[in-house]
Amino acid sequence: MSPYPKGDVRYVQTVDERIRGHQNVTLDEVKAFHKKFYGASYGEFVVVGEFEPETTQKEVSDLFNSWKTPVKHVRIATPYSKVAPESKVIEAPDKANAMLRRRCR
């Protein structure tokens, strides 16, 4: 149900792939990812409660105006693909409370 190849951001990793990925990532790779993709250019800031609008706006601008996002934000399209409905029974007599969840598109 997930037609995307490895390397595509929409690819659904197996549990083993996730574990290996977490074990193999380095701190430098995490820092590089953060530097490349994180910033405040495409965010929203919400304030709830009593506050002074002018003071709050100045404070938020001072804190975040220089934190630019290096890469342009683009929504990742996931086109609709028709999947025929089906029902499967997986026998697991030794697992009385077993449960399987699957995300459907």
What keyword list fits this structure?
single chain; 105 residues; mainly alpha
The total number of structural domains is 1
Computed structural class: mainly alpha
Strand content: under 5%
Work out the number of β strands: 0
Please characterize this protein's 3D structure.
With 105 residues, this protein is mainly α. It has one domain (1-105). Helices cover 31% and strands 0% of the residues. The protein has three helices and no strands. The longest helix has 12 residues, at 53-64. 0% of the residues are buried. The mean pLDDT is 87.
Summarize the structure.
The protein has 105 residues and is mostly helical. The chain is built from 3 helices and no strands.
Give the SSE layout:
Layout: H1 15-24, H2 27-37, H3 53-64
